[in-house]
User: What shape does this take?
Amino acid sequence: MVAFRRVVTVLAVLTLFVGLASAQLTCSTNVSVTPQLRGEGFTEETGDFTITCTGGQALAVGVPVPSVNITIFYNSTVTSRLLGTGTTSVPTEALLLIDEPGAAIPGFPNSNLPQVLCTTPLLGCAAVVGPGNTSVLPGTGTQAPNVYQGVIQNTVSLNHSIVFNGIPVLPPTSTGTRVFRITNVRIDGTVLPSGIGASPVQAQVLSNPSGFMPITNSTPIVGYVTSSLTTSASSAAGLNQCTTQTKTSVNTLTFTENFSAAFKTRVVAQSNTLYAGQLGQLPPNPQAGNQATPGGIYNSESNFVFPIGGATAGLADFGTRLKATFNNIPSGTRVWVSTANVNNNAFPVTAP
Assistant: This one.
């Protein structure tokens, strides 16, 4: 009889501990792809990373969803495009996405929701609990925003951090997960050493209040900076200064990428035609529209493309551009260079 009572007591204690564990929200970061970044680049795309949360106490329908500010510090200068103005804080193209909207992941119902922008990035957007453990706008029942812009401080000349304000964190409880994706963060690769080996790009993730959303593995590596370019020039042909020349070949300049995808098109090319990777604009244009899926691997100068007002987050102005400088050119001489990749001085490279 005594032994039976001891067993019952132990079971009761275990049940209590399991209940406490399920009520605690726990979050952890993950980087699915850690890209190589160019030590010569000023606006290098860091790898996306996610903050995945489980557990937490279930909230009743209509109750306000708790919100946090998420700040990310980098060991380099943040150079994401500014998409606004401000005296103290400025919205950028860096985005935080809740539950992978638009990705249509099987078994993950919130990923089927449309991408809705929070239009007040300096404050965030309030939400209340809707049916089915979803977030809706207070007093309306319509879907709450799931895309948030990162903000940098305009009072700092070299920003090493970016903050996402007022992010609603609806606890998924013990039956699901909640995913926050950080994308379109660019950094200055020239700040980190790139000569020998590879320098890690380190991020540090903090939430405020931290007690509600504790984050483990909070210092993910989101890229490695290394030298990406080798250049050379063939021997120059000698020309008679007193003889007229008509587009005479002098030599060939060679730019070689030191690792795969060091040279990138503006967007992912959709055909094997010249300049197909340079012409993307806004969705529904297929040149850029195919880069609107969270977590996609694009290997282009653009990343996750999302329209914000009259601008476009994630869309680069150009593909990789290569520069050559010519000095001491004699008076009366004109220099011509090819505008596309060539096999030699007579034939262009066949697309793609």
